[in-house]
Amino acid sequence: MAGGMKIYGKHRFPGRLFIVEGIDGSGKSTQLMLLQKWLESEGYVVYFSEWNSSPLVRDVTKRGKKKHMLTPMTFSLIHATDFADRTEHDIIPPLKAGAVVLADRYIFTAFARDVVRGVSPSWVRGLYEFAVKPTVSFYFRAPLDVAMKRILGGRDAIKYYEAGMDLGLSDDIEVCFELFQGKIIEQYEKMVDEFGLVPIDATRSIEEQQAEVRRIVMQALEGTKKTRIRRWLDLASLAKGSRA
Amino acid sequence: MARFSFFSEGLPGIDLEELKGKLIVLEGTDGVGRSTHIGLLKQWLENNGHAVLDTGMTRSPLAGKRLKQAKEGHTLGGIAMSLFYATDFADRLENEIIPALRAGFIVLTDRYIYSLMARAIVRGADPEWLREVYGFALKPDAIFYLRVNIDDLVTRVLQSTGFNYWESGMDLHMGEDLYESFVRYQRWLLGEFDKMVETYGFDIVDASGTIEEVFPRLRDRIQRIVERNGHAQ
Lengths: 244, 233
What we know:
Low-confidence stretches of chain A: none
Strand order of the largest sheet of chain A: 2-3-1-4-5
Order of helices and strands of chain B: EHEHHEHHEHHEH
Structural class of chain A: alpha/beta
Mean pLDDT of chain A: 87
CATH architecture of chain A: 3-Layer(aba) Sandwich
CATH superfamily of the domain at 16-149 and 201-227 in chain B: P-loop containing nucleotide triphosphate hydrolases
Largest sheet of chain A: 5 strands, parallel
Number of domains of chain A: 1
CATH class of the domain at 16-149 and 201-227 in chain B: Alpha Beta
Strand content of chain A: 5-15%
Distance between the termini of chain A: 47 Å
Number of helices of chain B: 8
Number of helices of chain A: 9
Radius of gyration of chain B: 17 Å
Largest interface: A-B, 39 and 36 residues
Order of helices and strands of chain A: EHEHHEHHEHHEHH
Structural class of chain B: alpha/beta
Oligomer: heterodimer
Largest sheet of chain B: 5 strands, parallel
CATH topology of the domain at 16-149 and 201-227 in chain B: Rossmann fold
CATH topology of chain A: Rossmann fold
């Protein structure tokens, strides 16, 4: 960490950082996956950053969650620790190298979740001051009932902290989950203006949403490097040419 | 009115009115005898009828074990490491220190946020940012800063455990060998502590003498804190 800590908005890197946010069931991960495929087919160097990169921090988080040992404060701090590790190891180096970095959820997830748990909004914003400001932050805006329909039934059991059970909103995990997600949406809506999140209407078709995302990303990509070695015919361009 | 307050925003869900005990911090660099003094103080306070909790860094049930591993393997970057320490501290604050204060204990803590901040600063974290992050901590009743100069410190460490990798800041690559690195690292830490003396109202205790010489000075000052009935700092 030579040279000290850079503050949000002050990093200068040749790469680009695109992130997606939204509640579970908003379809953001699908959209990000489609964006990744497209960027790769266009020849960009794409790096996909995932959560929970450090095994040590992951162990603590897992244990804390399993044994319900986490308070709003330790929940917030352990996720910030993990995010810092991800920033230092996973996000800054590829951005320095000029890559396009994609992240499924970012600091806004933490802001929403922690504030709903009662942590001070200004404190948690300060906590993440070391984060790199994204080139574009997409917010997949889905009404609660639409998201709930997508989630319930089609996935594994909802987990304790995921449903906000620690908040004691309800004893029924599904009811609690819905109440919790509703509060998360309120927080996201507040952050649209505060952080310039780009809202995408997640009730539209997957194709329509992806077209809009690609249009916005394309504008932000000017001057970004592509892979240097280009063959006349590679698999990517073949796939691009064929219409499904 | 509550005796205690937070540095800034504070912990959610804590009623400060309920906290009755005393929170006493011993700070200082490695090898100044903090843990020896805490052991003696605990005995003395208990003999006088006070219930005492002694606690130290990196021992939380949540993160303590992994934190030790992270430190030994030095795999985490500076910011992540600083936050890992903050997580561990928050766990101890909420699950050990606050319940003990609620029960009216005297809490003696071997280091507090100040050491954590000093170590994070020398590893590149922004001091302003750290102050914000640790805003959730409780302000202690007193902070005793066991101060020694660097020559005394070197002698002491040589006489006890010798230079260890971490206490010498070898992860920072500050010198060719453990001795050089130890001196530079500890001098830097001392500098950071000295900067905090006024900001946080440290009570400086000259720790250059023997335990027998230093302990009475500490004991007399703590006596006054224990007898005092006012607000924490």
